[in-house]
Predict the structure.
Amino acid sequence: MTKTYDIIVGGGGIIGSVTAFAFAKHGFTVALVDEKQVNAKKNIEFDSRAYALSRTTINMLSVLGVWKDLVKIAQPILDMKVSDGVAGRGASPFYMHFDHRDMEAGPIGYMVVDRFLKSSLWESISRNTNISKFFGYKIINQNVNSRLIEVQLENKCKIFGKLLVGSDGRRSTIAERSGIKRHTFDYRQTSIVCAVSHERDHLGEAHQFFMPPGPLAILPLKNRISSIVWTEKSEEASHLKTLSDAKFLKELKPRFGNFRGQISLKGARYFFPLSLSISKKLVVERVALVGDSAHVVHPIAGQGLNLGMRDVASLVEIITIARRCGEDFGTTDVLVRYSTWRDFDRLTLYSFTHLVNKVFSNDSMIIRTLRGIGMGAINNIPGIRRALMEEASGHGEGLPLLMSGRRI
Ligand SMILES: Cc1cc2nc3c(=O)[nH]c(=O)nc-3n(C[C@H](O)[C@H](O)[C@H](O)COP(=O)(O)OP(=O)(O)OC[C@H]3O[C@@H](n4cnc5c(N)ncnc54)[C@H](O)[C@@H]3O)c2cc1C
């Protein structure tokens, strides 16, 4: 079986699904391929994984028509408090408080549970007739000829496209086969993701405590539930993985503190070993990378998915405009516009997250004192606080149209 598509999207995670849908909405024919059987998992038991989505990501999901259902089950983040903490000793007196009222409009961002985001995207994709789905098919090879790229699936089926978008995650074989090398760094930290229910309401407040082994984020979900992203040294995380729920909760409690009353675990625990992984290039002839296949950053600022969304918005804009101008949009001449646009943003974000993790996951007395003073100072200067909030919400120079809520 052979067929030619405008765009082949290799990898149907969140970023690949948004890529496929955004291209299809702009009139492109799309083949979306994932090695897993993608399905709507709305009815499974509570799943503790959740994402902090920035306002610019929400702008894009709104233009694409996906946000109107998600907003009903998303939790607005109204306040964010960042402080130093030591398990059992509570937060330091110096902290930064980001309040949504300091921004021009709306909450700082929204928390959305993984399975709701995926099932909304799935429903949008399944209704769109421009998208052909190849789920349960692994991509095993790709070859570029002068006008097209040929993608071979594990079942020997071949599909052809003008452009292959690599959204196959942190171990991207699309990047590897394209000869794109990566910079990598092992943080020797692991993030433990789980959720807790608590007695007192969170009032939309998010917390980030910087502990010596890594940050602990407490992020608000609907109904007195918070999502926890607890980063520990990997050896300690391996130990925590072996504990029963009761023993695990006993370890978590002194870190969480008692400011929300009694807490209890809700749903499963997930363990994510952390590493930085940055592709040295974003494009080669007929191939462009987006999302984690292009850059995996430390989750310290909860920005990885948002960064991937900015890739998607930029790529769709460049390719849509190139097609309107009658250009062959899979050529390097066109694709290089995308990589040039994205370079500064991705460099800034991975340098920032890397640096913050280095400075904050550290128990030196001197550094601890200096960062306490720094946080106290920032907290007292509203202009800096506002600028940091705008940056975290994805606003910045050269924002793609979809991210500012406009159509291409
Ligand atoms: C602990 C933690 C917390 C985080 N919190 C946040 C947050 O709050 N906010 C935020 O913005 N980001 C956050 N992130 C980052 C975010 O989770 C990732 O950036 C995002 O999930 C990446 O999505 P993706 O679609 O690019 O990749 P993936 O989710 O890895 O998807 C890749 C897809 O490709 C498919 N695939 C792979 N190889 C093949 C192949 N050969 N053929 C076919 N299909 C293939 C896979 O099956 C998979 O479905 C967090 C990350 C971690 C680790």
In short: The longest strand covers residues 182-198.
